[in-house]
Amino acid sequence: MGTIKNLAEGITALLKGLATTLKILSRKPVTEQYPEYRRPLPARSRAVIVLTRDPDGEERCVACYLCSAVCPVSCISMQSAEREDGRRYPRWFRINFARCIYCGLCEEACPTLAIQLTPNFETSGRDILKLVYEKEDLLVNHGGKNNEYNFYKRAGVAMVGDKGTQINEDKPVDLKSNLP
Amino acid sequence: MYPQVIFQNRKPNRIATIDEYRQSGGYQALTMALQKYSPKEVQQAVVDANLQGRGGAGFPAGLKWKSVADDAPFPRYLITNIDEMEPGTFKDRIMAHADPHMIIEGTILAGYVVSAEKGIIFVRPSYESSALILEREIRIAQEAGYLGQNIMGSNFSFDLIVHRSGGRYICGEGTAQINAIMGMRAHPKQPPPRSTEKGLWDQPTVLNNIETLVNVPHIVRHGAEWFKGLAKTKASSGTKLYCVSGKVNRPGCYELPMGTPLREIIEEHAGGLLPGSEFKACLPGGASTCFLGKEDYDVEMDFEGLKKCRNRLGTGAVIVFDQKTCLVGATLNLIDFFVRESCGFCTPCREGLPFIRDLLWRIEHGEGEEEFIPILHRMCAHMWKSYCAFAPGASMPVTSLLDHFPEEVHEHISQKKCPFKS
Amino acid sequence: MLLEWILGFVFLIVKLTIVLIILLTVAAYLVWVERKLLGRIQARYGPNRAGEFGLLQPLADLVKLITKEDTVPQEANKGIFLLAPGVVGLMALLIFAVVPFGSGVTLWGRSIPLVITDLNVGLLFILALSSISVYGIALGGWASNSKYSLLGGIRGAAQMISYEVPMGLSLVPVVMLARSFSLVEITNAQSARPFIFVQPVSFILFLIAALAEIKRIPFDLPEAENELGAGYHTEYSGMRFGLFFLGEYITMIILGSLIAVFFLGGWHGPLLPPIIWFLLKVGIIVFTLIWFRATFPRIRYDQLMNTGWKVLIPIALLNIVVTGALVLGTS
Amino acid sequence: MPKLKIDGLEIEVERGTKVIEAAARLGIIIPRFCFHPGLGPVGACRVCAVKFEEGPVKGVQMSCMTDAQDGMVVSTTDEEAADFRKHVIEWLMMNHPHDCPVCDEGGHCLLQDLTVAGGHGIRRYLGKKRTYNDQYLGVFVQHEMNRCIQCWRCRRFYQEFAGYRDLGALQIAHHTYFGRATDGQLESPFSGNIIDICPTGVYTDKPSRFTGRRWDFERGPSLCIHCSLGCHIITSARYREMTRLEARFSESVNGYFICDRGRYGFYYTNHPERPRRARIRTEEVSLDQAIQTAAQKIIQINQKNGPKAIACLGSARSCVENQAMLIRFCRVQGWNEPTYFETPTMAKKVKRAVARLDEQLAVSMREIEKADFILAVGADPVNEAPMLALAMRQAFRNEATIVVIDPRPVFLPFEFEHLPVAPDDLEPCLTALIKGAVHRSAAEKMGEEALRFYDTAPAEYPDAPIKNRMVKITQKLRQSRYPVIICGTSIVRETTPDVAADSALLLRAARGRAGLFYLMSEANTFGAALLSSEEGSVMDVVESIEKGSVKGLMLVESDPFRSFPDYERLKQAVDKLDLFLVMDYLPSFAARLAHLFFPTQTLFEMETSFVNQEGRVQFATSAYRGGIPISQISAGGHPLRVFRRDIPGGESQPAWQILAKLANIISLPGREMFSLSKNELWSWIAKEYPIFANVPIADELPDDVRVHLAQGREKLFPSGGQIRSGGLSRENSTLELVMGDWTFGTEELSTYSKYLQQVEKEPCLFMSPKDASMLGLKDRERITLPLDKGRLEMELRIVDTMAPGVIVMPKHRQLAWQKIEKWPVKVAMGQIRK
Amino acid sequence: MLSEELLEPLQKRIAETDHPRELVVDIMLALQNHHGYLSDQAVEEAARLLDMTPLEIEELATFYDFIYREPVGRFVIHVCDGVVCWMNGYDSVLNHLFKKLGIKPGETTEDGFFTILPTACIGYCDLSPAMLINGRAYGPLTPEKIDGILDRLRSEAPPPRMAR
């Protein structure tokens, strides 16, 4: 008896499946017609990477190597250097988008909010070397998702102002102070 | 009135001269000791008298001297500590201004016991007057032959100098004081080696509080039993200088038997609380002791008595608070003091105390949160794992504030302001 | 006589050419149809870029396949590797030689049968050729020198052996009823009543077995993409890959034609001309195959073997016995 | 031996071991900031708290301050201890800035590690962060006080361990500040170590500032070759550039630290002018082509002038492989053996020293730390081998007496007895001390020769003030239980190494234990002395060139223009050559003159071996594969986007491989062919020099293999009756010129470092007050000094810590001192003028 | 430079002491009295006298409370901020001083007379609130008393050597 029941159930299932597909056949497709229609992407969708700037227009990247360290496909490389005023910056900064998997770990690791993923994903081209982006290609003139943040205002090193003048800092200790 | 031993020559507004001191029996003990007693015998007398160190820890002075090994190398040093910076304490100053020769004789006797060749009186800069007095009187004692080579014909030679400090609370700590004398930063140093083995310039060094030493001549002269009899309680001996300050009618330094009840000290000797004031709490032994509430008002003020109510005698400086004083504010003031005076050597003290200060400041200024209280508790408990006794002492007022006066703290937090400020 | 023979030959060539062109075109557009249908069943558009409604897609595919580099793996058995796709394509085309797609037309006084050749053992010819076509797969899989291809080839061979038997057996009742191996005869035997009504069991058995023979979902284990890459044709590219593909889609049409011939009465039908009926029936079958593909998942290998040996063969045998008894009884 | 239990694991340790060390041996790393195995415990940071559950100590205590004792049961995971440690981290992080991304310590920061490990993630402190202003601490060390966690390591290293007094703690409490009194270069030549020991980023490496993260560096164990001690180092390379160098712990050589010369001397390997291509005259060619050309020329000369017409110079800075291959090369070709030393005297001194250093006498630097009496003869540790001074200071801290007999104004970072005597008087002064401290019976026990040595050695030093000081020193030496003699080889006379060895033997006979420690001039002087068989010298080669018997000269990593005393003569000799072939990695003067030039690899690019002055065979791995640094190729911009197989500028090869290739081309048929395998070379070395036979040629780096020639076979007391009597017998009208080393500016490789160039002091001439007053010269006057071939102009320094009758001058990079005909140089007094 | 009469007794004391470093605080105080505060120059002088490095002097000078590394006035008012004085009106004393002298803690008056430095308990708790001016203690303080003290000091003292 069980076998027949199973058989019956099996056949019904097959038929149900057939019915379902047949039903969908009559539906209107849901596909969007790209590129005629470009669906607006959420701001947090992950595609091409940019390097943003501070509110005061300086490049945010301090070449701390955290993004390159965290990158699972090793597509980020850079060379840090010291600017004349002591600011740390990437002498060159390279992302190989031919390797990038747009996982966004670099953005998460970035302590200065410099590296950010944007919704722009249209980068395909015929020359693979064109997918190797240098700093000039990556730098943008805005702060990206957060226009306010300035790393050096919180870092505790003297860069955008003297020591003790930044957020949540006390005046520098006066070594020779007579006060107890 | 109780018998005055240390203050027997205390005159209002005047310093006792060497003659006055001699008239009262001064330098007899030294003469007796040099002529009749060996250092061991003097040491034994002090051990018998159970002379507890008056600097705060209460370690028997005789035992400390004993820890200088017989075959310890020479030269040996003796340091007399007049670096009292404990808020509420001023007995050393009173002593130096009352009877400097008693200090000198006590120091010489102690030097005799440990065969030291040089004594150093370490004076804080606020007591420049005391330092000048002592320097002058040391010269007088030298001229009188109580100091120098082969004192009074014996083969004991002893020099005494006054060393001025640059002024830091931590210099009162024994090992830190030794470092300070050596011209180094006054950081405490944990044994081994003990300073009685390797102290000043790596030589055996004994360091005593001045109030401990002034008792020595009297013990030598009158014997251990007499000294023990001076105290009110069995466990202790001798008299104690109690400095009473705060909201009392007659703040001052009073020589009373060890173990005099707190109520008696405040109400009889210090003239009771100011009109309109009511006893709320007191610190029984300076800043690094616990608040003592009304429930312990009758405690016997000696090392044992205060230990029983989980407190410390410390320097015996009674600071009296009345009901109009904000204890959170007082604690904040104390912690402020400790934060500033920490030597900065170990982490809990250097960084932990500012953390505690910050939390207390927020509570006092209406920015407190209930969750600060467990943080304060934990941090105060951890203060006991710091390098020296400074941080544990600093944590005591905070811990006792949280334990004995929790309502006051909660009131600060719930009202978002200090209830004592209008 | 000679002229007759020459004329007949010319007609045959013309017929062959027409059939071949139609067949290839249909096969090519079948790809388009399948993709379009699959797309719609998945709520997508399917190909719609090359030409209107993507109608030029087959052409685009063809161009792409032809221009694509024809790679041969370094360690492959080159001769066999190159031969294998040809076998598949050729066998599929050969089968169509015996499939009748109409009753015949009269042109310039000549009666031209709408079948390339009406073999009197057409059915056996079909069975034979369909068995050979698996050589293409097995050889291609083996010659590629790739473990995926080899597995795919082995699976194809095993699957063919397992399902050849029930397929053959399921046609025995048909032959018993039509009393002929000729496909034309079989068609004609159904002029009144298609065999599907008298032999539903045979029909189902044949459908299942034939699905397995042409390796279509749910029986596409030889190329199981997610296990074997693409199975026997993993290593193929360009037009050689195209030949495998072509073979598959021609086979689909053949299967449709065979089912139409064996069970649906071939070109017989009321009102409409016979060729239309035939195409309609083939179309329905082909649509069903695509529909199945869009609906059913691939079965497991053990299920495949179980079904073939333990279910289909016994049922087919039983069906022969019952049919035989009934035929004897009624005649 | 106390036995204790830590986290359930039992361990037995020596008495006096701290619990934190015992745990480390079990693999349990207790957090620490202030504790450093090189500096010992201090108990300031309190982060090493553990719970003592049973035993003599109870409760939560600091594991660094507690001696391991019997019966202790320790828990490192105890809740209260862990909570306390977490609090300590929280306290330390209260004021720590948020600047890890721009901090060079990020990635190898102890504070970072422990913050993560301790689980402190959320900031509870609401107050403001303390800040400090930073100081300029010189070329090497970057200061960033905000990051300080007041662990006191820097001050303890700087003041207590190293003995320099210009960096310390200022202010008090939570304002404690570590720095100098005023901005300025740190005075200590060991200042770089505070970078290594700082647990966070207060002191960071300035030259490598912002160049990369630890995880990106190719790091490997290597050796320092900027003096003969052979300290162990860790290299960090990135993008084909050596970026940074750190100390590597070594049990027997350098401990935990290295000097600044070692730390910042490596920049020669990145030098922008470093020759990277082979050259024929000025034309750059491929290496193979150059080898072919060289082979042709060599064959020509050999055919024309015979095999002895080509001379080879090796150098003491070259590795064992290069030195050995050069010798093998010459032997196979039938040429004269290569030369490694400038003068015959130098060769003899070094060879004597190597011959006299036997297994029992030789001491390592670690053993020097344990000595209770150190007698340095003709040695200036801070300048010649800085780490030795640090080892001596540790002995000093353990209450050792330290005596230096040297004419130069020796400075050491601790109190020591300096007996400034002229080079001629070094030996009598030494023997006088030894004779004062060793009874004749000790010599008697050692046999006749020892006795003869004892008897003929001068027993008294004639100069009265020094003699008086020697009384006390002799007394100390008499009481010592472990005396060590340190003997320099640069300014001493030929016989001094022997006298020092004999003295050490006598001391050992008398005291039961004694050590001998030679200082040599370069990293592989010991190796050169071991390998070279003849006592030829550059001087001889130059003479042969002048005579015309030598037509070709091959230099293997050698620049005689630096070290040869007579520059003009050498230049003329080189100009006469038919073939001048140079292999080197330095843009040296010789390299510029070369007819044929081959680029070779530096220590950092090849696997090499060196023998330090103690006879310790040490191995170095390659740090990177060579080639022009990316930063130099791209001029700071991004690297080129090209695919290529070879390394740009990576043509350099180990000199010994170039030699092997060259030999294989010029070799006549039937002669031995050289393999390019290092193992093959080493088996040749082991075969030819049995002393190396027990050196394992392994992939690991053995640290404790020593080779020593003298194993009882060497003739002891060879100086017998002819010890220099010395003793003020010199004429008064001349001064002897002594050329010493300076920490920075003398050693060849490190002079190519642009960072060390910045801290070089300007060379000057030292003179004793006595001589100066006779000449009427004043301190800091500019004077001219007459030499054999010209005059030198420099500043005069009058110092009272040097021997009279001697003037001292550094062999300095900035000083063209090579105007000397012959050593020793006597300068007529009247010739020194303003 | 230091005058001979100042230098000589110091050098004599140093020569007499076994461990000259013991005198470092005394020397610093002496130089401080001479210069008014322990100037950078004084630090170097002290270092020279004691054969120490300026850093070693600085380590101590910045450690101690009563060594002034910055210029101070003729009178340094150490106002006790110990708990007893705090309880008895430290705030009002300090505020009165601020108002009267027009300076904040650590600052020196324009005329160079006074510097206010809050200080840990000076040991005059029986006279609280108290303050210490150039080693001399005053207490218990009231605004009137303070005025009196300051006026007297200002009138009696010689004009300050160095106005700010």
Structure characterization notes:
The complex is a heteropentamer of chains A (180), B (422), C (331), D (834) and E (164). With 422 residues, chain B is α/β, with parallel strands linked by helices. Chain B has 17 helices and nine strands. In chain B, the strands form two sheets. Chain B has a five-stranded mixed sheet, sandwiched between helices. The longest helix of chain B has 18 residues, at 347-364. In chain D, a hairpin with a 2-residue loop joins strand 29 and strand 30. Chain D has 27 helices and 32 strands. The model of chain D has no long low-confidence stretch (mean pLDDT 89). In chain D, helix 8 packs parallel to helix 24 (655-666). Chain D is globular and about 85 Å long. Among the domains of chain D are: 3-92, Roll (Ubiquitin-like (UB roll)), CATH 3.10.20; 284-338 and 527-611 and 617-623 and 673-705, 3-Layer(aba) Sandwich (Rossmann fold), CATH 3.40.50.740; 348-523, Dimethylsulfoxide Reductase, domain 2 (3-Layer(aba) Sandwich); 734-831, Barwin-like endoglucanases (Beta Barrel). By secondary structure, chain D is an alpha/beta fold. Chain E folds into two domains: 4-61, Arc Repressor Mutant, subunit A, CATH 1.10.10; 75-156, Glutaredoxin, CATH 3.40.30.10. In chain E, a hairpin with a 2-residue loop joins strand 3 (131-133) and strand 4. In chain E, helix 2 (24-35) packs antiparallel against helix 3. The A-E interface holds A 175-180 and E 37, 62, 65, 68-70, 72, 105-106, 115, 117-120. Strand 6 (169-172) of chain A pairs parallel with strand 6 of chain D, so a sheet runs across the interface.
Question: How do you describe this structure in short?
Answer:
The complex is a heteropentamer of chains A (180), B (422), C (331), D (834) and E (164). Chain C has 331 residues and is mainly α.
Are there runs of chain A of 5+ residues with pLDDT below 50, and where?
Answer: none
Q: What share of the residues of chain C lie within helices?
A: 55-70%
Shape of chain C: globular
Which pair of protein chains has the largest interface, and what are the residue counts? B-E, 51 and 41 residues
Strands side by side in the biggest sheet of chain C: 1-2
Distance between the termini of chain C: 43 Å
Question: Roughly what fraction of the amino acids of chain A lie in strands?
Answer: 15-25%
Distance between the termini of chain A: 97 Å
Give the neighbour order of strands across the main sheet of chain A.
2-3-5
Beta strand % of chain C: under 5%
